[in-house]
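Troubleshooting entry. Yesterday's outputs looked truncated, so today I'm pasting the complete records for two proteins to confirm everything comes through intact. If either block looks cut off, that's the bug. Protein one:
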Amino acid sequence: MAMAADSSSRCAEKSVWVLARWQLETRAHGDAINTAARLESANKQLGTRICASESVVEQAPGFRGRPIGTVMLVGKTEGIKVFEPLNNETVEAPAIKAYIAAFNKLEAGDPAANQAFANVIGQYGDDPLSTFDLRRILAGETGIRIRLQNKQPGASLRLKTKLNEPEQI
């Protein structure tokens, strides 16, 4: 009898261990899928087609793209650095280089970031990501930390891309 009890307790321990491991793996996969879904949703507000998290970028040899910022996703306690993947030709375009220069100003807390993003839009035409960042700045936000909302910050502003002046609507 002692052997049967010993065997069943080992079986129960093994079952608990397997279940706990399965739950951890499921949560890890679930978190990655959840983050990917939230980043996909973020594209609508950011004006991008694809967002890649820093962890994805680190695993992609030769990644080419531009920084978007540190996005605060619902359900996350820490921000996620996010990038927009671009092809080799696009990443070398003057408009993208001007965007990156404006982004670097925003990241450094330089007040000239406002004008830098306005210049990107005025000189190279409508870039949805530059417009998003300029709207954030005009709405009083600073830095690269982005809190996504149901409504875009500064959504009541329409930008005149030729004159670089905000217009109330």
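Protein two, checking that the full record survives here as well:
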Amino acid sequence: MNTSLKWIMLSVLIQNCLSDKLRIFNETFNRIAVLNFNLIADSIEKIIMQEGEETIEVTDREHIIEFLNNCEASIGKKIEEQSSKISTNGIKKEIQFICEDCEEVTESTIVLDPVNFFMAS
């Protein structure tokens, strides 16, 4: 087999490998996008709209998804920003306990560690 034929075969092999990797990347990216969309949709309890004097509350998940699919990009961006802000703030881990007997206030921190959740003694 001559050298140029080897280079052509190698080139085809590399292109096939790259196209497989690109296909896998695109499939994974699309799955992540769908998961992200569903997380945002699931985090919306209701949409409140004002039409004249009437206030309309939309709570049906399918209608919320339809709204998200059809809203302007600027609204979608604001929703993503708020979702990100909520995620960044997280859950409040400081908690106060009040003794029922002496009414003394004690502060503590809750450790949310799923690895050790069942292992704590």
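Both blocks look complete. Sanity check on protein two: The mean pLDDT is 80.
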